């Protein structure tokens, strides 16, 4: 068991927010992965260029280098899918199916709907949806495989009806994709699964290789390299769109004296164990609560198999003393967390003040871990503070929304003069003529 000694004391000082100047506050809310941004940016640029230039040969070489395995075939075979299903524990299969049902229920209910509105007599405006033709899904493995991410991406892609769905997930040392990930992919109708990870997988799906199809839009979370790769390929000519910047996991908890110290610590550790570049923050108005949680973190940490990973994340995490709950929510809005837990006596009272967050969990009985798996919402969410402007993955992420309008002669008579006046004001005379020509034709009848 990879645990830390029970006597370990976490070096997590309590930061009194009101005593910090603006610079210290910015430092306190800085993500760990952003500290090495120049090195990451340069490394990713080299990988993307190599994959674009040499395709499958580079993918094999980078897989050998980073994943420590030789791949006979980049794509998972039918035999591998069958072996994965046969090897998987029946209880896990049932849990995956149960989670898929709830995720489908929520995502179908929140999918974009066709809308038709008559904005003036004889003027009908509509919005229709069409699936994105080809999408690429990235399912991390890293220190642990994530079949839940295959669900979170595969289910909305299936509901949207995307014609081609490609999935990349890293291989293990034996050159195999995780059995649970393969099983989940098949359950979502995805058979094009490639045993590729990291920035090279993103580059492959972005521009295509001899084996991997190019995709119009890329989805999925990952480490800082994956996130940077998504950002870079989306900025290149002919590059794909991306769902959002979704990098190392993070959670911010706002708690009051009613909250269980054990619950708070467990929620913080559930995110810290994702990876050493994850980050967790706790904000409270009671110093005693912050200190009690710090002690409880050390106690629970000693029991975790992934304690060494969680400890690295905790070393760059934060305990913040706020003057009030209003101040706490202001700090949270500035940080814009991927996950926000309001472990409060009356969480809904504070919900209305939440402006920036990927997903919110209300009250003592709503652990973020349930949202990661099977409550029904999506766990692919914006990180790095991008929740200020980005939303989590949904069916809307996998479709294009196209507007349509149809005018009858009466409709053109009603709105045409307005369009002509505006076109004239903008000195776009061909625009004006396209309208007035038709109006004149109607008058001559």
Can you walk me through this structure?
- The chain has 445 residues and is an alpha/beta fold.
- It folds into 3 domains: 14-30 and 247-388, Rossmann fold; 37-112 and 134-243, Nitrogenase molybdenum iron protein domain (Rossmann fold, 3-Layer(aba) Sandwich), CATH 3.40.50; 408-443, Single alpha-helices involved in coiled-coils or other helix-helix interfaces (Up-down Bundle), CATH 1.20.5.1300.
- It is built from 17 helices and 14 strands.
- The chain has helices at residues 22-28, 37-54, 56-66, 78-87, 90-109, 147-160, 179-187, 198-207, 224-235, 261-272, 287-301, 307-314, 325-335, 347-351, 368-373, 409-425, 429-443, and strands spanning 14-16, 115-120, 123-131, 134-138, 164-168, 192-194, 217-219, 241-242, 250-255, 279-284, 318-321, 339-343, 359-362, 399-407.
- Strand 12, helix 14 and strand 13 (359-362) form a beta-alpha-beta unit.
- Helix 2 (37-54) packs across helix 3 and helix 6 packs parallel to helix 7 (179-187).
- It is globular.
- 41% of the residues are buried.
